[in-house]
Structures are given as structure tokens and as C-alpha cells.
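User: I want to check something. If I give you two sequences, will you return the structure for each one separately, not as a complex?

Assistant: Yes, each is folded on its own. Here is the first sequence with its structure:
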Amino acid sequence: MKNPKNIQEVLQDWESHTLNADQLYHQKEFKKASKGFAKSVDIIEPWLERGDKELNTILHLFVLSCHNTAHALYKQGKKKEAEYYYSHAHFRLLSLVSQPKPSSKVLELAVLEIKATFNQLKTFLESMNKSQLAGNIKEESQRVLRQSYMEYVDDMFVV
């Protein structure tokens, strides 16, 4: 695979891998699907910190890729690996907003995705009887977001 030089090439590459993995998933080829979805995570993740005008799309596709990978892994019975990808989506976004002086654009766009990743991670952890871990992650997430000067952080994780 050639090294993509611009965001349009990255998005096309991401779409190709995702569509192929999705087809494999629907054929119940979960092992191959999870590898394809994981590749889509690898394709899009480096673009999270580039501040590109497509940041909203990049953030959303990153989360989608992580969740697709987690779901395909779960279908294989690989719960620990599935937990990793659900967690990775959430904590990677938290790391974006916890950087010194994140841009208001990053904060604005990441907050919605952080809420979605937390809800998915919480649901997954509770299904695995890890409610205390979910609570700890909620507290850590609130702490990180408070450091980014977000006043309404307590309400953000109310479902």
C-alpha cells in the first residue's frame, strides 16, 4: 500500500478497508473482518492530530473503526481484545483534549465523540460485570475534561 499524502487518499483507503471488512463481517468471517477493521483504525488514527479541516469526519471514522473492530472481536469470543478497542476509542480522544491548550475546534468536536465512546464502553463493561471499572473511567474522564476548562462536564456522562 502506498503512503497516503492527503486526507482524500486516506479517506478512500479507509473506506476501501472498511467496506471489505464489512462484507467479511456479514459473511460471518469475523476473524478476517476484525483484521480489516483494525487496519481501518491504523489508517485513520495518525490523522487525529493533524488539525485538518476534515477533523469532524476523522474523529467519527476513528470511533467507528474502533467500535467495528471491537464488535467483530467480540463475535469471535475475544472479549479482552474487544475491550481494548472500545477503551482505545475513548482514551485516545481524551488524550486529544488533554494536550496543552487544545484548540476549541478539537474540544468541540471531540466532546460529542467522547460521550459516544463512553456510553459504548460503559455498556460493554457492564455486560462483562465490570461496573466499577466503568465508574472509574467515568471519574477519570470527568477529571481530564475539567482540566480542559469544560464547565458542564458532570452532565456530559449522564445517560
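And separately, the second sequence with its own structure:
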Amino acid sequence: MVRKIIAVITAITGDRVIITSEAMKHVIEEHFRGIPQDIILETMERVLRDPTDLYRDGNNENKEYDFFYRLESGNFIVVIVKIIPDGAYLSSMYPIGQKHRNKHKKFKRIKL
């Protein structure tokens, strides 16, 4: 499967996160409708390079990192990155409330 790459961002973990056009389309259409792609990419870069919290799910065959960034409002944005044999790929990015989801209780918190 050929994926159209629109950006590569080096995360605080050292992983080079590949942003595909399909993943970006999902983020914009489902979670940030009306916000230009360049602003989404800048925000994504900030979250990946300087997260407030970072969690890792190592229970699956493939690793998953959830990068959280606290906004001035107190709410969070989360960027989910999946690590597969082909590389690190953006899975999704979306806003959440003022607390992490319950699934993160099972994840390992990474000290920054």
C-alpha cells in the first residue's frame, strides 16, 4: 500500500512520525473541521515535541504512544502515534476534556 506522506515530525521520543494525507484528512474532517491543515500541522508538531504528558501502550504487538498537550483552557489535545515495523505513523489527533481517558490507566506513563 502506497501512502502519500505530507509531513514527518520528530517527536520527543526520537521517533520520526509520518503524517499521511489519509490520517490528516481524518483529523480535519472528524475532529478539527474548518481549521487549515498548516495550523493543524503546527499544533501537532508542538504536541509531539513538547507534550504535557506521554503514555505508552506496550501490551499490543505494535506500540502506541499517546501525547497529551494541555491548552490554556485546561483541556487537552491528544496525538496518537502507532509504531509498526514500517515506522511511526500518526493515527489520530483530537481534543479531549480536562482529564485523560480511563484507558490510560492501563498504559505506562513516560517521564519527560
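Because they were folded independently, the notes below concern the second chain alone. Residues 14 and 49 are 9 Å apart (CA to CA). The mean pLDDT is 90.
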